[in-house]
Amino acid sequence: MNAAGHKQLVSRFFELFTESDIDGVLSLLDDDVRWRMMGQQGGLPISGEMDKQGIKDLMISVKELMVGQLMMTTKAWTIDDNRVAVEVESLGELKNGKRYNNLYHYLIIVKDGRIETIKEYADTDQVRRVFFD
Question: Organism's domain of life (predicted)?
Fold first, then answer.
């Protein structure tokens, strides 16, 4: 898969995530996928590493907490071999009345046409304040 194919795969991942299409997202992931949300364990339960089941559970939780969709908009790309770096902005309203708007940097590793690794860098304090406080 070339750079254009990698960009298409990752773009589709964020489209399906926005649509809360759990089966669609899971179909793009390697069976041994790992998603690491950077941040210290403790005050933020989602910091740390998730496997495929953890990603499914995350998507279910987000869907249940949101009014409508959590929009995930890709902003800028850097692709080098099988490494895709993408800047993303999220926007959505939670059922608790809070507005969620975060900026992210993802490093995504592609292997054999599927997503093998996701490293997510975001404002974890905002996640805590909006989702958990």
Answer: Bacteria
| Model confidence pLDDT, tens digit, residues 43-73 | 555 678 889 999 999 899 889 999 999 999 9
pLDDT of residue 128: 79
- Residue 128, classified by CB atoms within 10 Å of its CB into exposed (0-12), middle (13-18) or buried (19+), is middle
* Residue pair 56/74 in contact by the 8 Å Cβ criterion: no
CB crowding 13-37: b at 16 or more within 10 Å, else e = bbebbeebebeebbebbbeebbbeb
Q: What domains are defined for the chain?
A: 3-132 (3.10.450.50)
The pTM (predicted TM-score) of the whole model is 0.90
Q: Which residue has the tokens 């850097």?
A: 78
Q: Is the pLDDT of residue 133 over 80?
A: no
Q: Which residues pair with 86 in a beta bridge?
A: 77, 106
